[in-house]
């Protein structure tokens, strides 16, 4: 009888055992208890939620390693979701055995009373919901923000949008035809020789005048057609005293330090001793108009444009549209044997690009002063002169390499000048498309050239401008130009206190419109380059 009772008790105990373990233990948290996988031999995907250390069975689970519940309701909801599938917010968690994202737990919340792990406690203290990363505030442009690796640019536009082959095709269309260039330069040279000879004979004040070719044609960065020429009519000046007339450091009143008898500039001196820029330019303009009128139509057809307010140029046109050639004649005082003005001391930072020796050679060159009105708000100051370094700019573009053999026949070809041509072409095409609306007429090729010089200083090494990297180099150049627009800051290369993108010169609406247009072109593979002039 006792044996039968003992057997009955053992049978009842064996039937109760399943009920005690009927509630499944939660799976072990990978992030809390999993050991690093053994080297070699592990299958692909090791380290995910379904991975276990070698030799560990799926049911070998220590309840103490289970994470604590966030709250009882959450645990209940989690258990119900394990039956119905994960909630949309839990996609990526391993309730379905597919693995969790790196750093996420693959365990559902455990039942009440489980011992919390150290990691789970810390997680509960910090909060259950991970904080999203806030994008840092945008600061001023930095050199490190520009890259040529084809990654996302610093201004929020796509990089690498246009293939290098397409850019090379565009450059081919911008090359000047040899025959057209020869004919244009021949006509311009004939006109200039005629003018200089007649001016010297007619006016004693301009008897020492000479010519200096400047601008894109003489810098070999002219694009599309040889239809624009800039010629400086330079005349030597005695030692002068420069009085800065505004905060930019670019505009000055000019006084003669010594005024020897018989000086050709006597007739242009004002009562306060300053040299009248307006009088000199007006006199030269009248002489040129008289010479042009006396020219016979059989020589060539030449006309003189009306004077533009504030412009230092006397514009002549040769021939008839659309084949006419524009020639800008600019009067310039050549000042030798004098130190450059103080406003230039922090400019021309070419030591790492062209070298300290080249910089010193440039500093020994003369400076030029052209008659240009300074702006005082909306008022133009008369009889002011602006510093000009076009002769040095021409030399820097011609000898642009960090090494002497850059772009020579046996040297490595760079893409510096190609990037400058592409930016100039982009600005020209945008003006053509938009008809100079929204203030695009305020932007000129000199802005592109200044940005080019600044970019050459930012990336001084020839290896940073390889022609094989044309696409990425043009992208980083555009990124820099866009940052200048967005920050309203493009310092003059020789006079850093003179900001060419200041709000006094270019309003925010115009800058924003150009920036928007350039970003659109970048993101849409430059459809503007398909337009024909």
UniProtKB/TrEMBL annotation:
<dbReference type="GO" id="GO:0008340">
    <property type="term" value="P:determination of adult lifespan"/>
</dbReference>
<dbReference type="GO" id="GO:0160049">
    <property type="term" value="P:negative regulation of cGAS/STING signaling pathway"/>
</dbReference>
<dbReference type="GO" id="GO:0016604">
    <property type="term" value="C:nuclear body"/>
</dbReference>
<dbReference type="GO" id="GO:0050863">
    <property type="term" value="P:regulation of T cell activation"/>
</dbReference>
<dbReference type="GO" id="GO:0071360">
    <property type="term" value="P:cellular response to exogenous dsRNA"/>
</dbReference>
<dbReference type="GO" id="GO:0031491">
    <property type="term" value="F:nucleosome binding"/>
</dbReference>
<comment type="similarity">
    <text>Belongs to the mab-21 family.</text>
</comment>
<dbReference type="GO" id="GO:0140693">
    <property type="term" value="F:molecular condensate scaffold activity"/>
</dbReference>
<dbReference type="InterPro" id="IPR046903">
    <property type="entry name" value="Mab-21-like_nuc_Trfase"/>
</dbReference>
<dbReference type="GO" id="GO:0019933">
    <property type="term" value="P:cAMP-mediated signaling"/>
</dbReference>
<dbReference type="GO" id="GO:0035861">
    <property type="term" value="C:site of double-strand break"/>
</dbReference>
<dbReference type="GO" id="GO:0051607">
    <property type="term" value="P:defense response to virus"/>
</dbReference>
<dbReference type="GO" id="GO:0006281">
    <property type="term" value="P:DNA repair"/>
</dbReference>
<dbReference type="GO" id="GO:0005886">
    <property type="term" value="C:plasma membrane"/>
</dbReference>
<dbReference type="GO" id="GO:0061501">
    <property type="term" value="F:2',3'-cyclic GMP-AMP synthase activity"/>
</dbReference>
<dbReference type="GO" id="GO:0003690">
    <property type="term" value="F:double-stranded DNA binding"/>
</dbReference>
<dbReference type="GO" id="GO:2000774">
    <property type="term" value="P:positive regulation of cellular senescence"/>
</dbReference>
<dbReference type="GO" id="GO:0005829">
    <property type="term" value="C:cytosol"/>
</dbReference>
<dbReference type="Pfam" id="PF20266">
    <property type="entry name" value="Mab-21_C"/>
</dbReference>
<feature type="region of interest" description="Disordered">
    <location>
        <begin position="1"/>
        <end position="145"/>
    </location>
</feature>
<dbReference type="InterPro" id="IPR046906">
    <property type="entry name" value="Mab-21_HhH/H2TH-like"/>
</dbReference>
<dbReference type="GO" id="GO:0160004">
    <property type="term" value="F:poly-ADP-D-ribose modification-dependent protein binding"/>
</dbReference>
<dbReference type="InterPro" id="IPR024810">
    <property type="entry name" value="MAB21L/cGLR"/>
</dbReference>
<dbReference type="GO" id="GO:0002230">
    <property type="term" value="P:positive regulation of defense response to virus by host"/>
</dbReference>
<dbReference type="GO" id="GO:0032481">
    <property type="term" value="P:positive regulation of type I interferon production"/>
</dbReference>
<dbReference type="Pfam" id="PF03281">
    <property type="entry name" value="Mab-21"/>
</dbReference>
<dbReference type="GO" id="GO:0140896">
    <property type="term" value="P:cGAS/STING signaling pathway"/>
</dbReference>
<dbReference type="GO" id="GO:0042803">
    <property type="term" value="F:protein homodimerization activity"/>
</dbReference>
<dbReference type="GO" id="GO:2000042">
    <property type="term" value="P:negative regulation of double-strand break repair via homologous recombination"/>
</dbReference>
<dbReference type="GO" id="GO:0038001">
    <property type="term" value="P:paracrine signaling"/>
</dbReference>
<dbReference type="GO" id="GO:0002637">
    <property type="term" value="P:regulation of immunoglobulin production"/>
</dbReference>
<dbReference type="GO" id="GO:0005546">
    <property type="term" value="F:phosphatidylinositol-4,5-bisphosphate binding"/>
</dbReference>
<dbReference type="GO" id="GO:0019934">
    <property type="term" value="P:cGMP-mediated signaling"/>
</dbReference>
<protein>
    <submittedName>
        <fullName>Cyclic GMP-AMP synthase</fullName>
    </submittedName>
</protein>
<feature type="compositionally biased region" description="Basic and acidic residues">
    <location>
        <begin position="117"/>
        <end position="136"/>
    </location>
</feature>
